[in-house]
Specification:
Low-confidence stretches: 210-222
Shape: globular
Mean pLDDT: 89
Number of helices: 7
Number of strands: 6
Order of helices and strands: HHEHHEHEHEEEH
Structural class: alpha/beta
Oligomer: single chain
Helix content: 25-40%
Strand order of the largest sheet: 1-3-2-4-5-6
Strand content: 15-25%
Radius of gyration: 19 Å
């Protein structure tokens, strides 16, 4: 089997990921999509977009203790668990450092057999202002461990991909975790200002800063 197909079949090591995130001070909760195994996940994408009933119940039971959540991180195996294992903790560490104590970050939810849209249901159930899916991208010929970040404002079931912003190719040979966190926080600030993500929010995080405008003249002539 070619190595990029091997990457698709690899399982997420939830215990190792939880231990690493606990060391960073994150609370975690493990969830599962409605796809019971990898074979059906690959054959039935729709099952990967909704929670298994027991995971939905666990989320509803636990949700009240987290209060208001400005940004809810969800780690999802997607099509490359290796990408999540290798790069997601570094992205979260950079995100927390750059965001500072003022941002209300939720717990980190770890979702198996997950598609991007699973974050919509998760975010809706916890009434999060925005959800961030950190998900393994389809392995290519040059990389088995590329991580994608998907930001969705006001998540709810039925959101389309056009209502999200994506930062892709997060990996050692691509976009560094710290740079991905910088771009993400820029998008989040703009999403808060606009009240939406997706096609209405163009990523201009790399645009040169606008030159300072001259101060308006005072009406008293001073």
């Amino acid at each position: 089997m070619p190595w990029h197909r091997d990457a698709v079949q690899l399982s997420l090591d939830e215990a190792a990921l939880q231990a690493q995130l606990a060391g960073q001070g994150w609370e975690t909760l493990c969830l599962h999509s409605a796809a019971p195994d990898r074979a059906r996940y690959l054959m039935r994408p729709d099952l990967g977009r909704r929670l298994a009933p027991e995971s939905a119940a666990a989320l509803d039971a636990a949700g009240g203790r987290w209060g208001e959540i400005e940004l809810l991180p969800v780690l999802a195996d997607g099509l490359s668990a290796l990408a999540v294992q290798r790069h997601a903790p570094a992205v979260l560490a950079a995100l927390r450092e750059r965001a500072g104590p003022g941002m209300r970050l939720g717990p980190v939810l770890i979702a198996r057999q997950a598609r991007v849209a699973l974050g919509d249901e998760i975010g809706e159930r916890l009434r999060a202002q925005a959800v961030l899916m950190l998900i393994g991208e389809r392995p290519g010929l040059s990389s088995p461990d590329s991580l994608g970040l998907y930001l969705t404002w006001a998540p709810r079931r039925g959101r389309s991909d056009a209502e999200r912003n994506c930062i892709s190719n997060v990996r050692a040979e691509g976009l560094a975790p710290a740079e991905a966190a910088r771009k993400l926080l820029w998008l989040l600030r703009e999403a808060h200002r606009l009240g939406q993500t997706g096609v209405a929010l163009k990523d201009q995080s790399d645009a040169p800063a606008l030159q300072a405008q001259p101060a308006a003249p005072r009406l008293d002539g001073a």
